Amino acid sequence: MKLWGGRFEGNIDPLAMQLNASINIDKRMWDVDIRGSVAWARALAKASVITKAEANEMCAGLQAVWSEFNTGEFKIVTGDEDIHTAVERRLGEIIGATAGKLHTGRSRNDQVATDFRLWLIEAIDLVIKRLDLLQDSLIAKAEAEFDVILPGYTHTQRAQPILFSHWLMSHFWALERDRERLRQTRARTASLPLGAAALAGTAYPIDRVALAHDLGFVIAAPNSLDAIGDRDFAVEFLFDAALIGSHLSRLADALILYSTSEFNFVEMSDAYSTGSSLMPQKKNADMLELARGKAGTLLGYLTGLMATLKGLPSAYDKDLQEDKAPVFAAFDTLDVMLPVIAGTITTMKVNRGRMLKAVDASLLATDLADYLVKRGVPFRQAHGIVGRAVRLAADAAVGIDQLSLSQLKSLSESFDQDVRSVFDPRLALTMRDGIGATGFESVRRQIESAKQIRVIDESHGDDYYWHRRQIERAKIMQDAS
Ligand code: ARG
User: Looking at the annotation, which residues are catalytic?
Assistant: First the structure.
């Protein structure tokens, strides 16, 4: 049975049928496909296109099909081109001729776009949950290792002392932006294509706004051609996923470096490490390397779909069938990767002694220059003086904190006995308590606002008006600071 067999005389070539079929990919939309059909049957009855009794019969039949999928009993048969065909075929087998009225005023074009959006809205909610988990693990680690000091790096060169909790939180905020992006994507996804029919809009008096609300959408798409051809929501999701991948890869790359014997700042738990089949001593941070590697794959999904969409005329073209595989794959990747990285963070051992030992006195060179600035030396000049102090120390193969006061005084008369206190990294941190800085107090406030900002999410159900939430979030971030 083909949904479109009427005007055809010959049979389709078997390989062409294989190429045409999308059932193996879109069968995972069975639940949303059936929910969409139940809502459509009700809308048809409300518009008096079918009777209430017919609608009830359809809904009961659809419920039976749903149960078959739910228990794994549903059998896909040859000719089930896609999930929409399969569900309608089975409904016909169960309830007979009435099933033939379900597709009145509807096309697979608006049906598939509706299913896909419904599926994605729920998938986004799941990804956000997984992000929550990872963010929680970062916050918990930041609190547990709150006062651990390590070198902050730029260009992978030791730069200035920072709190490890500050470093952890830097990744929290990147993920927080990802959460925001997902919620905004979700809001734009909640625009209902159903009722757009094949391309021109349905010819039946369907209340599309009521239908939208019935299915949990916020609006009914305002243009039928756009509604069936628009895959922006899929692209946006793939972008969000690719950027999450990029964020995870940066986190992963630093941790891979920190877990080498050379750094030995952190040690990954056995639960998230693997060994070598040849070298018995090896313990590899494979999960982190996979996070780094999959960032490339996720980016590929995004560019692939973008390339598919480019140059397509409006309305539906079969090219659009290529939209689901990358979105499903991106979701599946994040669904596993986010909890694994969360587990990696939670269970990793932090070697605070090694971290502190790496904070050598040269990391306080900037603070030494600031010391001179406080004594009236212009910064540019202070920078030069400290630079010469660094050279002097290097020539003598000692740290700058080991230079005698007279050696320092030979470079500037502004140095005094109290210069010693500069070489305490804790002082350098205490100096930096402004908004966003690495000081003890400011990181404490940062963690506080990170916790608060996620609480208000629960009180804002309707993301379509996300800008209202934005204003509230901004207030929290500033107030906590
Ligand atoms: N399997 C198709 C897809 O995923 C459903 C829509 C088919 N529409 C059509 N006119 N052939 O895009």
Answer: 155, 276
pLDDT-based confidence at residue 1 (cuts at 50, 70, 90) = low
* Ligand 1: nearest atom to the Cα of 22: 1
Left, alpha or beta for 122 (phi > 0: left; psi -120 to 50: alpha)? alpha
Task: Please state the pTM of the whole predicted model.
Answer: 0.93
**Per-residue 3-state assignment (H helix, E strand, C coil) for the chain:** CCCCHHHCCCCCCHHHHHHHCCHHHHHHHHHHHHHHHHHHHHHHHHCCCCCHHHHHHHHHHHHHHHHHHHHCCCCCCCCCCCHHHHHHHHHHHHHHHHHHHCCCCCCHHHHHHHHHHHHHHHHHHHHHHHHHHHHHHHHHHHHHCCCCEEEEEECCEEEEEEEHHHHHHHHHHHHHHHHHHHHHHHHHHCEECCCCCCCCCCCCCCCHHHHHHHCCCCEECCCHHHHHHCCHHHHHHHHHHHHHHHHHHHHHHHHHHHCCCCCCCEECCHHHCECCCCCCCCCECHHHHHHHHHHHHHHHHHHHHHHHHCCCCCCCCHHHHHHHHHHHHHHHHHHHHHHHHHHHHHHCEECHHHHHHCCCHHHHHHHHHHHHHHCCCCHHHHHHHHHHHHHHHHHCCCCHHHCCHHHHHHHCCCCCHHHHHHHCHHHHHHCCCCCCCCCHHHHHHHHHHHHHHHHHHHHCCCHHHHHHHHHHHHHHHHHHC
Strands 191-192 and 219-220: parallel
Q: How far apart are CA 2 and CA 79, in angstroms?
A: 7
Assign 468 a pLDDT band (cuts: 50, 70, 90). Answer: low
Q: What is the mean pLDDT of the chain?
A: 94
Q: Which atom of ligand 1 is nearest to the CA of 26?
A: 4
Distance 148 CA to ligand 1 centre (A): 56
**Cα–Cα distance measured from residue 89 to residue 2, given in angstroms and rounded to the nearest whole number:** 9
Q: What is the pLDDT of residues 408-462, one digit of tens each?
A: 999 999 999 999 999 999 999 999 999 999 999 999 999 999 998 877 766 555 5
Q: How far apart are CA 474 and CA 480, in angstroms?
A: 10
Token pair 């990147």 is at which residue? 174
Q: Whose CA is nearest to atom 3 of ligand 1?
A: 321
Cα–ligand 1 centroid distance for 317 (angstroms): 8
